Predict the 3D structure of the following.
Amino acid sequence: MTHAIEVDELHKYFGPLEVLKGIDFVVDPREVVCVIGPSGSGKSTLLRCVNRLEDPTSGRVLIEGVDITDPDADVDDVRRRIGMVFQQFNLFPHLDVMGNLTIAQRRVLHRSKAESRDVARQMLDRVGLAEKAGEYPIRLSGGQQQRVAIARALCMNPDMMLFDEATSALDPELVGEVLAVMRALAEEGMTMMVVTHEMGFARRVADRIVFMDGGVVVEEGPPARVLDEPSHERTRQFLSQVSER
């Protein structure tokens, strides 16, 4: 079986600072992997290397068997298979919700205006925002904006979704509505790699948890084992300082 994501001996330097120190791990099709760890552990850098928003210093990243670190790889083609949702929503403020959801469909996938609007309406309904198609981002709550961002990614029919702390910029009362959408995607079989501080979500939704610290994978395994019976003292220290919701 071809892995959805395969990371092989990945290193990343920013100047003299080594942020990723030889990362090896895989995500299989339909698997949900949550990456946890303290701030500065390299989680977001790893995620950004997976779709080449950051160029690794050395090592390989394979997406569905294609080495996207190969200089001859068509990175844009591979990126079309990957939906990414960031901490900040990155919506275009001058476009309404429908405009935000159709612009990439038309420019990248070359869909017609009618088809792109049909897909946008389907995805807005999927995230519970069908009635917001004509609103501008400034008139939406943070939770609604993030759900629009998820819908925008889904409009591109990705094979997998990457989430980089998708709820960290939200007020606590808005976190649940975004996690509910992510949980529904997982239940539908979407391949997902999720960098998160939401331990309760990781426990309920992840097939596997990867704990990172200091640019390395300290341990990984099923949620119950990593969260309840961690093998490493560093994992135990981290978990003692975070709470589940």
The chain has a mean pLDDT of 93. The CA atoms of residues 30 and 191 lie 4 Å apart.
